[in-house]
Amino acid sequence: MMLKRLMLLMAGALTLAPLSPAHADQLQDIKKKGELACGVLGTDEPFSFIQDPASRALVGYDVDLCNAVAKSLGVKLTLKQLAVSARIPELQQGRVDLLAASLTHNKEREALIDFSLSTFITGQKVLVKKQSGITRLDQLAGKKVLTVKGSTMEQNTKKAVPTAVIVSFDNSPQAFLALQQGKGVAYVNDETSLIDDFSKLGPVAKDYEILPHNLSTEHLAMGLKKGEPAFREQVNKVLRDLEASGEAEKLFTRWFGPTTKMKFPSRPFKIETDKVD
Predict the structure, then answer these.
(1) Which pLDDT band holds residue 117 (cuts at 50, 70, 90)?
(2) Rounded CA gap, 22 and 27, in Å?
(3) How many CB atoms sit inside 10 A of residue 105's CB?
(4) Mean pLDDT score, 252-271
(5) Where do the TM regions start and end (predicted)?
(6) DSSP secondary structure, 5-59, as one string
(7) Which of 53, 30, 27, 26 is nearest to 42 (CA)?
(8) What one-character DSSP code corresponds to residue 151?
């Protein structure tokens, strides 16, 4: 009786096996649908932003990287503007195929998604009003510090100044405006974003200062769903090719070089590794 029951169970298992879904290959799925959905912020100049209010077209460093990946696949690029806190959930739920959204690659996020090679390496800093008298990070203790919800800036500010009171907003422009309105004494963001915001202050820029100390070193990268090695390798191949051909240097100079608002004299990194501290 036992042998008969075992044989019936094995037969049942063999019958069910073909019904199990095959592993989906996202790379093939993207080619099949003829479209790459890329998630960008759209509010973080020069990574992704609206340059011409008339056309409302999104442009920037991250947008160019999305374009390069779509071109390599021979598919149409669709850009989807995301809030900072929505980036990873939108990717996990398959609403976008790829994130190019000022996304910091860190160990904690590796449990949730995969990352491409680092596409930009920067540091997070603090912008204050000079009248606040704040010149060092430790002077933020017990004070209201403004930043972006769901960002690594929240975590890094807390690590650097545990008693700081973090006040978070949906995006960078809102947090920057809050500093100008006196809703906090400091505003934390990536150095590039702070330089861009500083340039928008105009004549009153003399009343503000970016503190020289880094809160952290940030490796920005493109985000991918976990367990899609073929798509990840395709994205990394595109990035390596951009680096080898000199196009990566041209992209950096276009958006961050000496003639831009960023005024970086040179590119302090290369696209060559996905290792983070």
Answers:
(1) very high
(2) 15
(3) 24
(4) 91
(5) none
(6) HHHHHHHHHHHHGGGSPPPP-HHHHHHHHTEEEEEE-SEETTTEEES-TTT--EE
(7) 53
(8) S
Q: Name the CATH superfamily, with its identifier, for domain 123-216.
A: Periplasmic binding protein-like II (3.40.190.10)
State whether residue 237 is helix, strand or coil.
helix
Could you give the residue range(s) of every CATH 3.40.190.10 domain in the chain? 32-122+218-256, 123-216
Q: How many CA atoms lie within 13 A of 76 on its CB side?
A: 5
Pairing of strands 48-50, 165-169: unpaired
For the domain bounded by 32-122+218-256, which CATH number is listed?
A: 3.40.190.10
The helix (run of H) or strand (run of E) holding residue 217 is strand 216-224
Averaged over 35-45, what is the pLDDT?
Answer: 96
> For all residues of the chain together, what is the average pLDDT?
91
How far apart are the C-alpha atoms of 187 and 228, rounded to whole Å?
37
pTM here is 0.78
Q: What pLDDT sits at residue 19?
A: 44
Residue type, 119: T
Residue 205: both structure tokens together: 């820029």
Q: How far is CA 55 from CA 50, 58, 171, 258, in A?
A: 8, 9, 22, 27
